[in-house]
Amino acid sequence: MTDVTSAPQPAPRSGAWLRLAIFGVLLVALWSVARLLGFEEYISPARIGTTIRDARALPFAGAIFVMAYAAVTTIGLPALPLTLAGGAIFGVAGGITLTWLGATLGATGAYLLARLLGGDALTRLLGARAGTLDRLLGDGAFLTILRLRLIPVVPFNALNFGAGLAGVRLSHYVGATAIGILPGTSVYTYFADALLAGTEGARQTAFVRVAIAGVLLLALSYVPALAKRAGWISVLVLSLATASVSQPLPAQTTPAATTAPVVDHAAWNAMLSVYVTDGMVDYDAFQRDPRFAAYLAQLSRVPAATLSHHEQLAYWINVYNAFTIELMNRRHERTSIRDINKVLGVTLKSPWAEPIVRADRRTLTLDDVEHEIIRKQFKDPRIHVALVCAAMGCPPLRSEAFTAERLDAQLDDQARVFLTQRHKNRVDVKTSTVYGSPIFTWYRADFGGTLAGVGAFWARYTPAGPEQALLRSGNFRWVDTEYDWTVNRRRGK
Asked: In this predicted model, what pLDDT tens digit does every residue of 7-48 receive, in sequence order?
């Protein structure tokens, strides 16, 4: 007969409730702190675009992103906005890698938090009913967690905390999580630009890309069933395949620079002088010339902040124009830049939102270069006659590189040349009407915010006479001329 007084007594249920209560209070406290610090605002759909642009300029952005992702996931906040932001900030390959690392660390943190504060307590409360959790324990736990991770509809945070409460072995949990989240992470990252680019075209057609993403995620739900027939090695193959096909553009390597390189635009100048005539561009010649790829690689290694003001502006104008040509060649487009990413007449993603620019040791879009760097930092309206978007309606591409030494003279000359293109810009004194390129109305904020400001800009480059007097007066009617989006292509010899 057993001595009742010496038998181990079960822990009181009040203690179990207390530990679970502490677990719940801690989560609520962490969520409250995150809200008070405004973190939810930073990752909200309305603010995420601005957050992405700010993050790109941060030093150690990758490490900060991983830590932020791990922290958000550990306390159970929604991490999907960060998943999408990862692709927009770091590109597909970098976004997948950093998001995967942050998600794995955060999932592990949530598991440990739940196990530390709630695992034993839950077992005590369930008593004999805790046996139902045994299906997740032992060697079978790895495959169970892996199956659940591969099914996108299973809540990520719920599984993190549930596995900790259930007492799944740490090694099984981390291994299955690291493998199982890779396909879904890859799909979400791949479509991040379509959801977060913020351009008008992207907003109007984002549902198309979302639908495609949904189909792929639904397909992932069938992976566990397929794996049962093909063996679990197939899961690894499918995971790796999903990651590999989700990179739309071949990555360009950016060699590490030990010293600040000198910006040498000589090769670019030489090519422009041969391949550009009266603003018409021989895109095929640029594509064939090995100097062009070498020049783009050089641009990627330049630390722009080390340059003088004029050197920086010349550098960024050359970056924009060179990578516009690269975009047209990369996508083999010879009709209109607006046909890039267009399917059945619908633009799936703005061509200016493509993360194709490798400059200043980072990856950017053409929109970033124009709006976030050139317009915002330099505030010189003349840049609108220097940036060329591969269209006949644009200002003509100059047959020489912009350089710091001649920058002011080159920009002034570009303004005169553009304003003398009478089919785009002209003044009718008799009717007091100015016919001008839509560029001036699109960006009137850069010319003082009014059409009178645009007129004052024109007057600087118009000979003295009635036309200049009308422009200076500001008392004119403005009419946009037609903007021709046909490619400014010169046929090769």
From this structure: 334 444 455 555 556 656 655 665 566 556 555 555 555 555
pTM value is 0.52
Q: Are 197 and 349 in contact (CB under 8 A)?
A: yes
Contacts of 410 (CB under 8 A, 6+ apart): 386, 398, 400, 402, 403
Write out pLDDT tens, residues 63-106.
888 888 888 777 666 667 777 677 667 776 777 888 889 888 98
Burial 127-159 (b: 16+ CB within 10 A, else e): eeeeeebeebeeeebbbbbbbbbbbbeeebbeb
* CA–CA distance, 13 with 10 (Å, rounded to integer): 9
Contacts of 156 (CB under 8 A, 6+ apart): 73, 79, 103, 107, 181
In whole angstroms, what is the distance from residue 419 CA to residue 457 CA? 11
Q: Which tokens sit at 462?
A: 């118009």
Provide the H-helix boundaries in 289-398.
290-300, 309-330, 366-367
SS3 303: coil
Q: What is the DSSP letter of 348?
A: S
Nearest to 301 by CA among 253, 230, 246: 253
**Helix H or strand E encompassing 357:** strand 357-359
pLDDT in tens, 337-354: 999 988 777 777 889 999
The two structure tokens encoding residue 89? 């900030």
The Cα 347–Cα 351 span in angstroms is: 9
Q: What is residue 380's three-state secondary structure?
A: coil
